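User: Hello! I'm new to structural biology and keep hearing that structure can be predicted from sequence alone. Could you demonstrate with Probable disease resistance protein At5g66900? Please show me the input and the output so I can see what each looks like.

Assistant: Of course. The first part below is the input, the amino acid sequence of Probable disease resistance protein At5g66900. The second part is the output, the predicted structure written as tokens.
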Amino acid sequence: MNDWVSLGLGSIGGALVSEALKFVIEEAKKFKSFKPLSKDLAETMERLLPLTREIDSMQNKLDLSSGELKKLMETIEKAYILVCKLRDDPVWFYEKSLYARDIEDINGEMTKFCGIDLQVLQYRNQLKLLGVADHLVDMVYSLGKKMDGLTMSLVPASVFRDLCSVPKLDKALVGLAWPLMELKKRLFDDSVVNLVVSAPPGCGKTTLVTQLCHEADVKGHFKHILFNVVSSTPNFSAIVQNLLQHNGYAPHTFDNESQAAVGLWTLLVKLRKDGPILLVLDDVWRGAELLLQKFRINLPDYKILVTSRFDFPSFGYNYHLKPLEDGDARALLIQWASRPDKTSDKEYEDLLQKILKRCNGFPIVIEVVGVSLNGRSLTTWKGQVESWTLGETILDSPSQPTVLECLQPSFDALVPNLKECFLDMGSFLEDQRIRASVIIDIWMELYGKSSSILCMKYLEDLASQNLLKLVPLGNETEDGFYNEFLVTQHDILRELAIHQSESEAILERKRLNLEIREDTFPDWCLNGPVVNASLLSISTDDSFSSNWVKVDCPSVEALVLNLSSLDYALPSFIAGMRKLKVLTITNHGFYPASLRNFSCLRLLPNLKRIRLEKVSVTLLDIVQLNLRSLKKLSLVMCSFGEVYYDTEEVDVSKALPSLQEIDIDYCYDLDELPYWVCEVVSLKTLSITNCNKLTLLPEAIGNLHKLEVLRVSSCINLSELPEKTDRLSNLRFLDISHCLGLRKLPLEIGKLQKLKKISMRKCWRCELPDSVKDLEDLEVKCEEETRLILWERLKPKMRNLRVHEEETEHNLNLLQMF
């Protein structure tokens, strides 16, 4: 008490309450032997500092001798006395358990004050400041008293003891041994308080967590394991009522969620006296972030485990449960489906592999298909597999509604714009690895979005709901360049997108998939039909001879062509697609496909984006199409062969007056940039990446006065940039990362006064000219070696220079591209 008096406090209500509290906090942090108790106490007290400062400033106006403030002062005094005793007593460790109990009691009192009294007190003070009538102030005060009194009404009663018990498992686990070990490791990690297990529907999240709760070491550690299923429209008060009744207390009717929060806190404090607590909230839906926060209580040895189809990155550690690996999927299928009679080993194995390919590791799908085949004849097994080869999906079968019932709520939970985006994903082939930029191009034109960033957010939103997967290929890129992300989607989720689109008649659908095997067309397109779809996807195999039927597609705005043959003629009916805005042609064969009938694209008035992947094309042909609305041209893994760049007969500025972006990626035989590119005066972004044969850029590139972004990354044989690059007066971003052969930058690069960012990882051999010092407010991204060799010496001369180190990621995800 002497120290308390020496600080001028003397008794409760002294002059420096905040100083006393700061002293207690600092001392509490020193007692490492009591962690995490002392850490929790310090964190709780830090929340009270603003209030104590206000008390210091208003001590003459506040009554500290009664009510909540008296209780607070007494608790602070207890804490002060305790830390002084620990500081001055050299043998306190002999009574460590006693002191630990004291610390826990003080922390509980302060936590309760922060959670209840402090909120009521602050609200009451706000009402007084606003001049609200006294009777209303008294009503708020009474509410706080009622909430406080609730803690005394928890009278034990023998009711609903199993309301929040862990469910029993009625099936053997397959393929969850590794996830179980990983999850258990996180659960026992003291630094992890809240965990989220997320995955697409039907992947076994609840099964995994249920088994976790039944593990002997988990049950041995947590004295109370509470398991509650959260609905898509959760009610916090109802969940708290369940928890109370499960623990033997009579039902409570809460007037509001604040009272429910008091009930939860009181229950957890009581249970905590027996030992650690694990609260499992199963099947939590998107939009429940605020609900989850209400369960977060600063209490030692209290953890929350959430299962969800959605990610909650702000809540805690996220563990993503993946579909089953091949071996585990096979074991699970064999568990559910007995082998049909009279099958040879080879025949049986062949059927198993085809079924497993269709199920693709989804436990719910494997279970449903397995149950439907269990005990059935060999003919039934063969018929099931054959029906899939003919286009029937698992979701189409009326005898197997369980899978659709499992998946449908995930679609129903999407907001309208994300529903449209998800449905569009059905237009791509199964198992296809799609560049994010492909999807973004389609969405920008279909939905009139001017920002690629917004469309990328849609992809991230779908990924956070586990309806697709975003795979980064390397370092984060800038300026709306999303080639560094792959999008993949599980086959069953693609089938869900297609199933949702098939509710209307074929010719009336907004999205339509046309699959052609060999030269066989579906019956519906044999009589010259009129298709009303705005998004049309056409897929052909390697036997297709390009003998097209006539189809009228006046409403198509986005056309996705998936081909596999070496020789491919574009369908002539494209010429009638007057509304066409986006054309994506992707060859899934091993070698570049030769494209014919390219002229059918000529003069399409609204075509704004063309993307060609793994095709052989003459660059001059694109100029001669006279696509006056074309804004973006993307060429990926294309072959240009023997190219003639003579454009004397073509006025490029008139033929492509709207072209703003050219993206050339992984085009291995590009050794020279076509001269006509330098005549596209409207160009704002030029990206040439991963083109190993490219050695020089033409001097005429300086004619691109509107160019804002020049990206020539990973062109390893590019030796220099043209000197006339200094004429790019609007250039703001230059990316030369991984240009390992680059030896110098233009001498007068300092003239580019709008240049604000340079990305140059692995370019430490490149010489920087003196004029680079004239670039004001420059941001450079590079790895440590480039920073030390090139830029460190310039920092004293470039006051606003900012150099950010980014180590190159050796990303194995790149292998998924090929």
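User: So the tokens describe the shape?

Assistant: Right, they're a compact way of writing down the 3D structure. Reading them back into a model, for example: The CA atoms of residues 142 and 194 lie 34 Å apart.
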